[in-house]
Design brief:
single chain; Citrate_synthase_sf; Citrate_synthase_AS; mainly alpha; Citrate synthase; globular; Citrate Synthase, domain 1; 16 helices; binds s-citryldethia Coenzyme A
Length: 380
């Protein structure tokens, strides 16, 4: 048999087309439906970027107003979702909590949908489901954090846009415009990134004609891993372990000697730096100034400069977003659920694209197990 060339982890393998986003490591750029993500982060509310990813064009003022009206209808925690979250132990990981909540939303919404033959739904149904999930996730993430802190649920406010309302439900106070802007930028930067592991997982599930909720639940499972979305939580664990800039060199000596992966650094596609980092770093800088935390900036810069100098591996988006979310006041365990709230827009855009392509994803494998053999007396 000819030597089969295995592409471990599908590294470098182009498996399909997508029109949702373009990641270009050569030019270190990322386009959402043709727009540079830096321009979107600097000029758009997250609602407009969600609309762009789903529909392919930025919304008109009328279309944005309609999306905002529809989003507000689905912000509040439903009784089924709240009951499901309340059944979980307080120690449950927030990623498991959000995964469970999405499952409940799907089970309720798909309840009357009959056989699996109807699971995949129409493009109109899936767009509506995408908007409803996008609208519902902030309350799920905010309630989970407040519940773990022993605090009461805070109901959404219709007078606040997506990011301001998310922060209101999480902290019970109107956030400063500087904080809202930094948070809004992070949501846009986290929204979409072509065929990353969680998005590809969602596409595989969609390719069997399964439903959008099942695909999002699968994507959440993939995002949880520290090699992927879980890295933003892991960045804070590392920063807390190091403590201050003075400890970085000794800490890195030990970590690298132990061959540890330094979370928040490296990327399968970007090898000369993640295109999103400068924009998220600028947002972090505004938060460092707003909260007067130069110590955070010192530790961030020292660890980055030391690790890049030693390994030539650059930060990815999770490196600046971790400390940014920490400064805003989110619990470390809430960081990756924030990633879900943003990436659900990219996931659902890809789910709708995959559903339209109608092509089952089923790669081959090269067998390297024991040769054929037979049970004694088992052969006729
Ligand atoms: C995200 O795909 C996406 O687009 C994902 C994402 C998105 O928006 O969806 O961008 C979000 O997931 C960003 C990545 C977050 N993950 C982390 O920060 C975890 C730490 N990073 C590494 O685990 C690693 O960099 C990966 C998994 C991200 C990428 O790994 P690759 O491309 O498979 O590269 P590799 O693991 O083969 O590394 C090549 C070498 C190895 O050394 P050798 O074994 O060859 O000696 O570089 C080393 C690795 O050990 N290396 C690291 C490292 N990253 C790579 N060593 C220490 N720390 C690191 N962070």
């Amino acid at each position: 048999m000819s030597e089969t060339e295995i592409k471990k982890g599908l590294a470098g393998v182009v498996v399909d087309y997508t029109a949702v986003s373009k990641v270009n490591p050569e030019s270190n750029s990322l386009l959402y439906r043709g727009y540079p993500v830096q321009e979107l982060a600097a000029t758009q509310p997250f609602e407009a970027v969600a609309y762009l990813l789903w529909n392919g064009e930025l919304p008109t003022a009328q279309q944005l107003a309609e999306l905002r009206t529809e989003e507000r209808k689905h912000r509040a925690l439903t009784e089924q979702v709240r009951a499901a979250i309340d059944l979980l132990p307080l120690e449950a990981h927030p990623m498991d909590e959000v995964r469970t909540a999405v499952s409940v939303i799907g089970a309720v919404d798909m309840g009357g949908s009959g056989s699996v033959l109807d699971a995949s739904g129409s493009p109109e149904q899936n767009l509506q489901r995408s908007i409803q999930l996008y609208a519902a996730l902030p309350a799920i993430v905010a309630y989970g954090q407040r519940r773990r802190r022993g605090l009461e649920l805070i109901e959404p406010r219709d007078d606040l846009d997506y990011s301001a309302n998310f922060l209101w439900m999480a902290f019970g106070e109107e956030a400063d415009p500087v904080v809202i802007d930094a948070f809004n930028r992070s949501m846009i930067l986290y929204a979409e990134h072509s065929f990353n592991a969680s998005t590809f997982a969602a596409r595989v599930i969609t390719s069997t004609l399964s439903d959008l909720y099942s695909a999002v639940v699968g994507a959440i499972g993939a995002l949880k891993g520290p090699l992927h979305g879980g890295a933003n939580e892991a960045v804070l664990h590392i920063m807390n372990e190091i403590g201050s800039a003075d400890n970085v060199e000794a800490w890195l000596d030990k970590a690298l000697a132990e061959k540890r992966k330094i979370m928040g650094f490296g990327h399968r596609v970007y090898k000369n730096g993640d295109s999103r980092v400068p924009t998220m770093k600028a947002a972090l800088d505004t938060l460092v100034e707003h909260y007067d935390r130069p110590d955070v900036a010192e530790l961030y810069s020292k660890l980055e400069s030391e690790f890049v100098a030693r390994k030539g591996i650059y930060p990815n988006l999770d490196y600046p977003s971790g400390p940014a979310y920490s400064l805003i006041g989110f619990d470390t365990l809430t960081f990756t659920p924030l990633f879900i709230a943003a990436r659900v827009t990219g996931w659902t855009a890809h789910i709708m694209e995959q559903a339209a392509s109608n092509a089952l994803i089923r790669p081959l494998s090269a067998y390297n197990g024991v040769e054929e053999r037979h049970v004694e007396g088992g052969q006729a």
